[in-house]
Amino acid sequence: MDHFPTNWGRPRNDAYDAYGTYPIAQRPLNSPNDAFTVGIQHTQQPIVTGTSVLAIKYKDGIMMAADNLASYGSLARFKDVQRLHPVGNHTVIGAGGDMSDFQHIQTVLDELMIEEFSAQDGHNLGPAEIHEYLAQVMYARRSKMNPLWNALLVGGLKDGKRFLAFVDLLGTTYSASTLATGYGSHIAQPLLRTAVEGKEDTLTEEDALKIIEQSMKVLYYRDARSINKYQVATITASGTSISESRHLETAWSFAEGIRGYGAQTQ
Amino acid sequence: MSIMEYNGGSVVAMVGKDCVAIASDLRLGNQALGISSNFQKIFPVTDRIYLGLPGLATDVTTLRERFRFRVNMYTIKEEREIEPETFAHLVSSTLYEHRFGPYFVEPVMAGLSKTPSGGVKPFIAATDLIGCLNFAKDFVVAGTASSKLFGVAEGLWEPDLEPEDLFETISQTLLNAVDRDAFSGWGCIVHVITKDKVVTRTLKGRMD
Amino acid sequence: MSDRGKSSEKGGELVFGETIRVPTVRRAIHLSITRPLSFLILRFPLRPIYAQQYSFDPLSQSLFIIASRLSSVNLAFARSNSMPDMVSIAQPQQRQFNPYSENGGTILAIAGADFSVIAGDTRQSEGYSIQTRYAPKVFRLTDKAVLAVNGFAADGNMFVKKVRQRLEWYRHAHAKDMPLRAIARLIQTMLYARRFFPYYVYNILGGIEDDGTGAVYSFDPVGSYEREACRAAGAAQSLVQPFLDNQIYFKNQTPAPGTSHPVHLPLSTVLSLVIDSFTSATERHIEVGDGLEMYVVLAKGSASVQGLGNIRGIQELTATDDGERVFVIRRELKKD
Fold this sequence. Notes:
- Chain B: InterPro entries: Ntn_hydrolases_N, Proteasome_beta_3, Proteasome_bsu_CS, Proteasome_sua/b, Proteasome_suB-type.
- The structure holds 3 protein chains of 3 kinds.
- Chain A is an alpha+beta fold.
- In chain A, 26% of the residues lie in helices and 27% in strands.
- Chain B has 4 helices and 12 strands.
- In chain C, a hairpin with a 5-residue loop joins strand 10 (214-219) and strand 11.
- The model of chain C is unreliable at 1-84 (pLDDT under 50).
- Chain C is of the alpha+beta class.
- In chain C, helix 6 runs antiparallel to helix 7.
- Chain C has helices at 2-6, 37-43, 72-79, 153-174, 180-193, 237-247, 267-284, 305-308; strands spanning 55-57, 62-64, 106-111, 115-121, 124-126, 129-132, 138-142, 145-151, 201-208, 214-219, 225-228, 230-234, 291-298, 315-316, 325-332.
- Chain C has 8 helices and 15 strands.
- Chains in contact: A-C, B-C.
- The A-C interface holds A 4, 6-7, 13, 15-20, 22-23, 26-31, 33, 35, 37-38, 42-45, 135, 139, 142-143, 145, 147, 166, 170-176, 185-186, 189 and C 51-52, 83-84, 86-90, 93-101, 103, 124, 126, 129, 131-135, 152-154, 157-158, 197.
């Protein structure tokens, strides 16, 4: 539906993006440019991007999921990318946004874990510490006007305590029993909340998996930057595990009769 | 600069027990500059209906006359006084006629409608500048101090207020709201409409 | 056309992409320019200092060509101005990273004679999305100081972190907690230090002064501050502050003959007003709701402590035996 009445009845112009959807995750400019900003390349935009990450708390720990697609604009460029990354034995992080920035984050975190391991001081970093560290890195980078263009979920379980939190390119953080990034925060988060809130301590792994799978399916139906191939991570008392890629079974017969969805053009 | 804030001004209406009240500030401004401290923006439509028109002053004047004309036409054709509900729809449709080049006002109506048993029922309503009707059961606000009016009214208003208590409530709501609004104030006027009379009081307010 | 091109200084009507008249200063390239601008751009690359945009000088009625980016696509856009403003993907994207966001919520503080109440809702949002229903905005700094932060959450959390660090250093250096008025000045200095890349945060500091009185300090994002008896800030400031003017300062109210308004209200009244303020704000503002946290700071030997005993779910957070006591009271707010 075109919400601009002056366009009604006029021929469509494909040069215009009526909904302002390009580029995907850009925020509006809030200040005028001055002459001094010319020539300084502080800013960027995401290039190869991952879409939503979902995560929920359940009885035994945290379950997280992300599909295997890394898009180049609207091109489904890399279809076998892992967007979930284990950090130590108690934590998994999942990333949406720029995949090269995410790979940088993986490198930084892996180095950090080695450094911490080398100290041999009997301490090892849990999900809360890793989230705090990431938040500080993300906030520092945004303050240098050179952000790491990601939305990250950090999930884990350490000393019997479940942890699930979010951090993004602005350094904004929050925690809740269900979290989702990107389109997931609009499409999947309401589903996750109804399914999980109040039941965090009773949901079994089987229940949690069903909720996650259902939400990934809904996302695949509606998010044009998603793919029907995804991985699920669980973090429980027995450590982290990231599944092999799973395939989503979807049915599109309903689309046949819908104009603009199926094969017909008029 | 928004055209809705060009002249400033605010209106609020509240429901009481068998009574309604409508009140406005008296300021007319040219942006930050105060021009008049006696600019009426509430007008009687019938003996039992009052209409408040906060917004662009030139449209306030135009619409007042336009509504007077349309209500007179209604009265002549129908040979009876217009009911508040009907008048609200008249306001709405008049504004929607100008959907793509609107009058810059947000009308607020308050009145008493007749019930089949011969009693009266309080009625308030408000619309946006293109005539989207809002029939509230408690209070309606409009103008440059609307967010302040919402806050104070939500804290002070209660159901079934007697006329004198309703007067106090709407007066306190308006005075305290406009004192926090740079574009409203410079005195207030309050009308309390009951079955057999309308009491109009002018309030002193801060003049800064 | 070429004649008009020559009499460039005299001015005339300007048509995009057809004729271009160039001022004297750039006469070197003006002669016989009658072809579309794109041609000119290709043949006459300009120095990078002009590589900005085009600007139009209304006095000389001339187009100063200082655009290198003005492509033929752009000119097509300039011609077809019958479309309303929309985001066009045909234009070059020149957007900048915005380091700020706004996370909603509201905070509020009221000072009593020997106590302070500092409150905030717990919803954190961005746009129309609720990020979480529990993200605290009110923080205990010491046993006599509580800080509420509202605005951009990432800045808020970082700011609280840095204030706490400074207070810890003070404790290590002076073996006591920093006095409230000193914390207020510290916050002003820390905010002003970031004058040209501000913390996008509204701060309200509440607590007990050294003289045992309840105090509230409110700040703007760059450090302007004052001591007040009450203050609301954040998304619903405009809803709450006039209500407080009326109920705390008794604005627009005249006392009955022979009586006067109280200067300070009792704790129970203040708590009721805080709850009412937040339920009202929740009702009418979409960014306010979910939960309410009210911190109560009592002065040494405050009699208000009696009233606290029967409050549902109250929790004491006092850490030292200096005499001041800190409590937190949590309440649910509507979640819609």
